[in-house]
Amino acid sequence: MKVFDGFFEVVRSMEFANPHLLWLLLLVVPYVVWQIWKRRKMQVPLTVTTTQPFENAPKTLRYRLRHLPLVLRCLALCFLIVALARPQSSYHKSNIKTEGIDIVIALDVSGSMQMMDFTPTRLEACKDIAAQFVDQRPNDRLGLVLYAGEAYTQCPLTIDHAAFKRLLSQAQMGPLDDGTAIGDGLGTAINRLRESKAKSKVIILLSDGVNNTGYMDPRSTAAMAKELGIKVYTISCGTNGKMSKMRIPGYGVQSVKTEIDETLLKFIAQETGGTYFVANNKTKLKQIYDEIDKMEKTIIDEEVIENKGDEFLPFLLIALFLFLFELVARYTFLRTNP
Known about the structure:
This protein is an alpha/beta fold. The protein is 40% helix and 24% strand.
């Protein structure tokens, strides 16, 4: 019967319009005690010399079911009380709309990114932490720009995060001329976001050097980002002025001084409404990405519709069925006074 559809679902998450009536269930206990006392009161004592013939008598099915009418009546009362308490089911419907953020990571791949103050190198640490950051942004489109003496797009904006991480893992200076063209790297990242329809557009720019080459002026490029509503978070990798080891082909491991234009990176962040961060090790870099993740939250619009319906009818029908079954059992195959 359709009235029993979802019955067990109602039982699992049951709410009641009249929950105070459930206290009536406690009356079942004194009712059982009274029935037992009444049954014993009706028994007539019989004096016999021995009980041995009764002990060997077979116990019939009728004897084993002698308490069935009382059990059925108690169950019927329980279901009737639950029906009176008006159990209700709640139906929840959620409409969730997500609006992701377009994020482009502009990664410095110049020769100095091979310094070993990060484990194993600055570049490999940046790639590893960036991959972890991507896993935290399932609803966002991400792009990747690499720059050294010049800049190019390694991965256009995509929601395919597996493809993004594969291209990220392949990031190297490769055919690029050595140098640090911060303006070109920022400009290429801006170009990736120019046609974006997302309400929030973000660039994460990492550098460990001084702008010393390229065609675009970083400060003018920052003004362009501001005009387009693009927020830029800048991260300097390494400790400015500190000597760090670096493997130089043909010369082995050498100590090289780190020079970072912190003033420029601060200006770019402040001009575009972003934040400037300093990462002097891999752990700090991870903390910076986590902080950016918290600041740039994906927009989630959730609408919850709740509807409650009465579900007392199945309980009432079960109670009626148990009452009828108890009457049939009591006056047919379990009659005590034929």
